[in-house]
Records
---
Amino acid sequence: MTVTASASQTRRPIQRWLVIWVLALAAVLVVFLLQDRLPWAVNYPVEAVVPVADWVSALMGWIKSNLSWLTRSVTAVLGVPLDFALNLLAKNFKFGHGADAFVLPRLSWVGVCAAAFLAGYAAGGRKLGLLVGGCFLYIALFGQWTSAMLTLALISIAVPFCIVTGLFAGIWAWRKPWAERFIVSPALDLMQTIPTFAYLIPMLLLFGNSPVSAMIATAIFATPPIVRATMLGLSRVPSEIDDFSEMAGCTARQKLWRVLLPSARPTLMVGVNQVIMLALNMVIIASMIGAGGLGYDVLLALRALKVGEAMEAGLAIVALAIALDRLSQAIAHKQATANVHRSSASPRFWRRYPNLTLAIAILVVTTLLGLFVPAFAAVPKAITFTTAPLWKAAVNWVTINFFDVIEAFRVALILNVLNPLRAFCEGFPWLGAVFLLGLAGYQLSGLRLAALVAALTAFCAITGLWEKTMATVYLCGISAFIACLIGIPIGLAAARSDRFEKIVTPVIDTLQVLPSFCFIIPVVMLFRVGDVTAMIATVAFAVVPAIRYTNHGIRQVPPALIEAAKVSGCTPRQTFFRVQLPLALPEIMLGVNQTILMALAMIIICAMVGTRDLGQEVFIALSKADSGRGIVAGLAIAFIGIVADRLFNAWTAKARARLG
């Protein structure tokens, strides 16, 4: 009797909300059908658009006029270490002027490749050393050395800046919960959802077209992971360690720097790995405002439709990304497992760090040899290779032999799926979207979330960007849907088979380290520019979280529950669908959330291949240096991501609470 009453009580709210949603959808349908009488509810009135873009442009103009001394000072200060890194890795040190100038060559490519091998060997053994050293040697032999070193120089300065800034911000947020709640977390959410292109516009306006602008944009974009890692790492330090440090008489500063932060080092190193990968991704995009390097090579090749050159530069980016990712992961793992021991009689430096000492010696010797032997200073052209003609020939062969099939697929997809969906989204009443999303927020988490979601959605309409916003939602939505349709079944299969997981894991690890540019190049080769290209590239970029979170969610179901299901007589199929899958659903939905955010980030970059959405607005604003237009479009994109993130997080929290 009690069970029946409980079931009926659970069913009543579901039935009530079902009625509410049916009425809400009916009301929106009525508004759409009566759009001739209620045009303001479907299309936001032009005369009511709030000129936020003009206000932002005026503010940026005032900053540029009145605070130019500050921007010049920042440029001068940051330019010193950046110029040193650029000269050390990519250019030459020049002392004096004219014919009497003395030139000290950059680090020898031979020495850098050897140092990369030694760094990998010290962090993870011979196999990792060969991988890291091989990646650098590949870059050299394929003629991409100077561009790759320009990119690496920017990363080598931006990453330490990110780590120091993020560490102090994370410590402050951990110590002050009010700061974490009201300042740091909202700022991090905004920083991680604003598209990469939108960072470039204010940097271009304030700091000019220079490597310093690119470095500042990269540092801002790549800082959030280390802030979050610092807060998470410090909060996870066992209370016993904290109590012991107080009993030992440590001051607050000693406890933080000598006890808590060393204890949180494994989590911090994971954050450092993420900072490196985000910095690499952003430096590639920042090539558009003076960074140069591999990203600029890809950009020029794509603009000129030189498929082979674009592919070679893209593969060099991949090699650099794999080397940095594997090296930072190995260092993080080593820091997590190392048992730090310092004896009272500390051995000499070269005994404690033999690999570092050897690397420095090799770099010095090979660089000095470069003064006398040109082959050490620069990669000889005689030993370099190029695969550009092969890539071009391959694309031509595919185009000639499979053009009809590819074109039929592209046209069918556009006519039967993309165009109808785009028309539906762009014609959806803005007032109805605000109302329905607010209702979803209220159902999931109450009035505060409803107000936040409704306000952020309304911002896209009142700034005159509703049509572009819905174009972005349509392309992001279909891409994320297809990514989940592919990724979730693969994740389920990986969770049920260890052998299949061993096959899938290296593939998704590789996809995760590829910079976003590299997904566009092969798709453009086959499908040219347009929405189909953007969708396919976005699906490939965003499918990883759907696979990873689904696999992890199924595997983290407690074994005791699975055993209980087996004891109760459940078949393996029943155990999977009635026990494992429901309990893993919150984790799977987190993967869907991350898939949507990654799809949104990639859609913006796909503005380079002809999409007509908010990404195009940012791209046009960047080309015209229109800060107001670009920043407002960037905020609209960020608000789409925040709305999706908040709703999915609220749904996941509710599901977890329901499942206990």
---
Amino acid sequence: MNDWTSGYVADIDYTYDFFRELTPSHLGFCAHSKGHDHALDRPNLTYCELGCGQGFSANLLAAANPHIQFHAMDFNPAHMAGAANLARDAELDNVHFYERSFDDFGNAPGLPQDFDVIALHGVYSWVSKEHQQHITSFISQRLKSGGLVYLSYNALPGWAPALPLRRILTNRAEQGSGPLSERIAEAVEFAHQLEQNGADYFTGNPALTKRLSKMKSMPASYLAHEYFNKDWTPFHFEDIASDMSQAKLKFLGAAEPRDHVDDISFSDEQQTLLKMESDPVHRESLRDILLNEQFRTDLFVKGKLPMTERGSVAAWFKTPLALTRHYGGGTVKLTWRRGEIPMDQEQYGPVLTALAQGPMTTRELLELGVFGQMPWGEITRMLTLLIGDGYLAPSLSNEGLEDRRERCRIFNAAVAKRSEESETLQFFASPVTGGGIALDRFEQLFLLARSEGKETPADWANLAWQILAPQGQRLQKDGRVLETAEENLSVLRARANVFAARRLPLCETLGLTLEPTSALATPRQGKAAA
């Protein structure tokens, strides 16, 4: 009997994270930034996610982009069942899930013949060579000319020192018995003992001490899929480029905007070395050596359509930008590979202040005069850095906004309803950005309370405690678990007040608030537990 998992971890479900690199508007921005005239702002688009895990990202993106048809596959039936349930609760009709393997996905009934985007996040390094070949074959057959592939993977040389660590962990886990989660915890503890007892492998690789320390606090659901699959391959970029070339793809650039600005990652001397390398594939490999790269988020294109300088400026002009972090007029500190990035508050301050009022295109910001006398190159550099650090997000046009608002409201209400039971889902869909915005469980409960007619932060806190208390949930403060209702409510009220002052205006601007529902006429019954 064949093992349907093909060596991939199935004992522990994958996480429910959302990654902005999957967002169509973000991918479009990165493509424009690297000079490709993409078609992601046109109607009737098709998007495919290979190895979608729990399907949460595909559901969220479908809610925020009703003009795109999403098709997502995963081999795990539990993942696909859960994804389909959320799609039904969110009333999504533009997302389709397939319980398939990579070798037979192309034969799935109802699958489009071609796609504008094919995305794989955290997949390629964790499947066998055979499945990698199935993936490249699917891309070759199904990606449209001019289409984009987003591919993330563990990279060399950054992972090279940790290769023996993974062997230590997997060997130890194989020797144990019992649930995988327990064997993972024991394997990590064993590696920590080796490090504490002066194993030369760890003393000769001091960065591994920091890695081990982080691993001890990571959930088993992450560690299982990151380290404990049968197949686990960090790649040299040249090997990935070779695989993608079999599907007629060429490297376009990183899906991380900050990697589009060389001077924040490399010294002057290193930039000179990079400029001396004329071959684009060899140049990327040299970048990885200079950066000791561990993880890459790459964009490939099937037939690049180069933009003229005028076309590039026009693309910037029509790109809407939205503020995605609270800005109260203070100093913004951006950091990247070489540390803090020097930024002039007189330049970025007026931009962030203007966008705090609502999304605007770059042209509208120019017309407001917020850039002062900045040269065009400095303007685009500053905006790229602010997008890369998460202060801004490239967004969707106003056309279709009301439809997106309603679809996102239904989706976000389904997510918020689940927050009554757990903190698993940590993102809402934004009809403005077309992507996800992180909201923790308390923030979701505050928005849920507000949608049910609770008007003040104190009311929101009371409803949150009414939900949490019967479940035995307790908050912490200064490392101490709070036991009494008064203590818990005090912390919840403080958090609700901060949320009202800082995050709620941003939620309103980004379309994350939940409209009043029938719960207004039928308020919750019961009192908070003491």
---
Amino acid sequence: MRKSKAVSALALLTSSALVLGACGSGGTGGSGDAGQQDSNPGEVGGADQVYKRPKVEDIGEIAVAIEEGFHNYNNNIGATNNFSSTIALSSVQPSPFISELVDGKLVIKVDGDLMESIEVTSNSPQTIVWKVRKEAVWSDGKPIDCKDFHLKWLAGASKATVKGEDGSEASIFDSSPTGYEDIEKLDCSDNNKTITTTFFANKNYADYRGIFSSPGSDGLLPAHILEEKTGVADITKVLPSQNDETVKKVAEFYTKGWLGFDAAVALSGGPYTITSTDLKDQTVLERNPKWWGEKGSSSKIILKTNTDSQSAAQQLQNKEVQVIAPQADPAVAQQLRGDSAFNVFAAGGQTFEHVDFNMARPLFKQNADLRLAIAQCFDRQSLVDKLVKDVDPNAKPLNSLTFMPNEVGYEEHFSDIGKGDVEAAKKTLEGGGWKQGADGIYTKGEFRASFKLGHKVVQRRADTVRILQDKCKQAGIEIVDDQDVDFNDKRLPASEFDAALFAWVGQPLKAGAYGNYASKDKGGSGNYNNYSSSVVDEKWKAANGELDYKKRVTLMNEVDKQMRDDLHSVPLFQLPDFAASSADIGPIGYVGVGGGVTWNIFAWQKK
């Protein structure tokens, strides 16, 4: 799960399980509703549909306005893990399974351009055979093969650790172990083009479609580059059980060698390659000359960063760009929907806004009553009415951290808070021994009910803070706006905040979100607010290995109830996926794990 936009459609066990409810489309005002996720997702190991990129006409150069620029080639570690980088990487880094939007449904399919086949040959022990196409190569001509799969397994399953500043142990690869740690062995055969993963006995993994793949917020990296840079002759000889100088050398390059962008090491295994980027305002992609599949429609793609939704819409109207994917903005949505010169895509997707309390800060760690009071004074309905309704008329406050409202299994565990209840918040504080000072703010001992709410520079988030401040100030709680252009990229992964306002970009597989909530020493590589619960750790792991779909739903709701009890995070609302284009470009859509609006950029055509 990528920061910036969340949770999956719980444990999709087949390729057709997740449904995104479309709430609008087209400049002509058309709309539709894709309905709810299927209640019967099918069997683990069922035959998956295969996707192959279509043959398309050349449309030349195209420009896309996005809300945040590309940052890092390796986007799969805790220090990076940013949605903004997937916008470019979705057409660059290979992924055995990919997601396609089909009539409002997010369908997981085998990437038929990359893979010859993926087959579950046994469930006892769970065994999966992955066959990479013979012609699949990186942009330097070297094969995409078992070494690349092995490197991802090593990074996720390695037992080598490093001590954090707080003394806790964490993965030396800064990577989530989810799924990978359950693989007992990974074998290479057929000239390294066949990979066989065998899981430990009684360690089945229901969301195997997420390992190595974008539906699990992952992907493959060129292992041969790591070999060249580290001097390791054969990465497949380095095992997860090792904790020696060799694995430390591998981890050093894995976590640092692919940061930022260096064309010499940031290779492509997809239809496009990144040719230049300033890591901020502009990233350029061009067709990968070594790509063996059908050529992408655009000869050059220019990704232009624009943090202001209104300005991005102006760029579209002025024909400076052909497509925009800003934060959902009511005024922009209404403006573009009313003009037949543009197409608008808006859907209730897998993205949700939330506020996380930094549980390492004494103010929040030691004062559960303050966390509750803050949650009580938050006026979530006002947020929805003022910031979301004009984009998605069906929007409502979100009452779960594990399910979206259009998913089977959604239960409202947070419905008792977030109602802008000033009196309830005051009662909670006073019942906990807090006293209201002359300035109207409550205090207790060394603590003052005041905190900074950090977020990146986006107008809607500044508006969110302003709305939250209102009722909470009346309740004697001070919220200080703390916006920073580098918040998501730098401060959030470094836990440099009192509380954080951001969103998770969800994936169609639930297990991948484990790393955002698990204790850091249990694999919480994306756990930026330092939350820790043994109940959550154990139940979520149990859910990941549970092949019975209904039982998984029950386990995940038990996880959600525990997080409500701990109240380390407050869900605000499901954020509509939003994009717009000139009417002669399409088809546009939005798949968060596939790069948002760029998920199918290789197939865009001019009408």
